[in-house]
Specification:
Two copies of one chain form a homodimer. By secondary structure, the first copy, chain A, is α/β, with parallel strands linked by helices. Chain A has twelve helices and eleven strands. In chain A, about 35% of the residues lie in helices and about 15% in strands. In chain A, helix 1 links the parallel strand 1 and strand 2.
């Protein structure tokens, strides 16, 4: 799925900032792609971007309107149809992360056909993937894994992209989730892929590349999550990572949506290596990314020091302290991937 | 997906017996459900069932016509449309394992709507699954796992069902693949389920049951298969098996469709226990099912003896020697599940 920037971010009448989480992610990570926001009366979210109508945004060069707002059940509200049709008429492709397919609304489908615009439903992959082949392909890959869902895997991969590029390394974030696809303009939401094609989809998302190029693959779920471990394992075999970083939220007691306790970071490292060796015998950990937002700064520093010492790996909070320590370790192990 | 027997098995103009593999599986395992076969001129497959037209089969009580034949690409040949429409007009539901959706052919869709008949596309699940919850549910479960794809996981589960029922045990085969769904009249083809819903689908396939009831869950793939390990892991967490049986084909050198060597049976046991403990701490192996079709009888016996001794588990070829040794072990460990 390829999405063409620049974007106009449609917020509709989002109930709060949380409902606009996807749009916030895009505006945070790709401000240069975001021409403006388009809000309806009653909208309670604000990206602090210029408020533009589709016609105004089109005049400023925007090509795709992103429906970057979530509703209960992922349903497209009826009263958004008119606005989306108007955007199509103003020349926009439409990309949506809702469950409702854009094309399931006849008015939207007809407008897109009439004006030759694309309707991109991120949750409904149209790409026909092959099954994974498990063959090592050129290029370096790093995968972010986790002790749970929603512990910062996307954020860590994006922070690494920024830091590695600043270091002169040739590094690209590779999206496997909805927000990530909007942020990178490419990728596939793994949760929209058929069970047999998880690894194959990731082989497509992070394809063969130059020998010293880094793909920073966004992980999903956890090998220890009872609902999603299969997704995480398929992703691991598709990514065939040379390096991985474990993401963790230290104050969480049970895994998201279930009653299971979180595994230890050490357990995640051990099982990731054990399984990951199947498709890349050289797999190894390069750092720990801890989300310390619920800890005071001193407490956070102490926890990171203990974690680093116990696991003999750089441990950091990417938000608070950046990821330089992890990039140092990568640069040391893969010197040829560092720009001169 | 619920399919109502009795069945009429449609073979079309199948090129050979292999193309009718699914139909053969149904006829072998559910002869009491198979009223007849319906063949077109040029058909080179034969199930040794009465040749019946849809009208004749309907008169004998058949309710569903199964399109149990594979074509290159899983495409429904144009010239079958007329026969399928005729079957609908004769009162049949139609169930198909092809990739082409039955309803994508307007003539078929219209006939089904006009006559109020069901179109069941096994490869396109219409069930809306939840994500897996990982909560232990009542009932006993056994999962067949493998060192590779296509090593006898379905066959072993079905043989166990037969042997356990003969022993007075309350046991049901639970299908996770296309042929299995036709054989049990229920289930879901896991390869048609979205990546996030593998475990949840298996929780639906093998739901809460009486305390001493056995679900014999058909496994898929292998935890060591680079293409499908994610499916196998999701299936493991959805099944939460108390018992598992490892299926193996000793003459195979590389895993199906890839260049990877097969893992050892011991490796499969170790990783199945390590991962399976997450959702059922009591998981343990109860036997090895070896497909010895490419070995002479003496050689097969020697291999099974060595395997049994080394792994301290019953080892058998279900086709050649039955599964009584495995059922003995189950009956001993779960005496309350054996009928009086």
């Amino acid at each position: 799925m390829i999405i063409h920037p620049p974007y106009l971010l449609f917020l509709g009448d989002a109930a709060d900032e949380l409902a606009a989480k996807t749009a916030h992610g895009i505006a945070d990570w790709r401000p240069e792609w975001c021409v403006g926001q388009f809000r309806l009366p009653g909208c309670r979210a604000d990206l602090h971007l210029p408020d533009l109508t589709p016609a105004e945004a089109a005049a400023k060069g925007a090509r795709t309107m992103i429906v970057g707002v979530a509703n209960a059940g992922g349903v497209l509200p009826e009263h958004w149809t008119r606005e989306i049709v108007a955007a199509i008429e103003a020349g926009f492709d439409i990309a949506s992360g809702l469950h409702t397919r854009l094309s399931s609304r006849p008015a939207i489908a007809e407008a897109a056909a009439r004006h030759g615009r694309a309707l991109l439903d991120i949750r409904h992959s149209t790409e026909h993937f092959s099954t994974g082949k498990g063959v090592k392909r050129p290029g370096l890959r790093l995968l972010t894994v986790g002790t749970d869902c929603s512990v910062g895997k996307k954020y860590t991969a994006l922070t690494l992209e920024k830091a590695m590029r600043a270091r002169g390394m040739d590094a690209d974030f590779r999206a496997t989730g909805q927000t990530g696809v909007f942020i990178s303009g490419r990728g596939a939401a793994i949760d929209a892929v058929g069970a047999d094609f998880i690894s194959g989809a990731v082989e497509w998302i992070a394809p063969a590349a130059a020998e010293n190029h880094w793909d920073l693959v966004e992980g999903q779920g956890s090998l220890f999550h009872p609902s999603f471990a299969g997704v995480s394992l398929g992703l691991l075999h598709g990514a065939q990572p040379d390096a991985f970083v474990v993401c963790h939220e230290p104050t969480r007691r049970t895994m998201r949506g279930v009653a299971h306790e979180l595994p230890s970071i050490a357990e995640v490292i051990a099982l990731t290596i054990r399984c990951g060796r199947l498709t890349n015998p050289a797999i190894r950990p390069f750092g720990i990314a801890v989300n310390t937002q619920h800890l005071g700064e001193d407490e956070a520093r102490r926890l990171l020091e203990t974690t680093a010492r116990e696991l003999e790996l750089p441990a950091t909070d990417p938000v608070r302290f950046g990821v330089e320590a992890i990039v140092d370790r990568l640069a040391e192990a893969f010197p040829a991937s560092v720009g001169k």
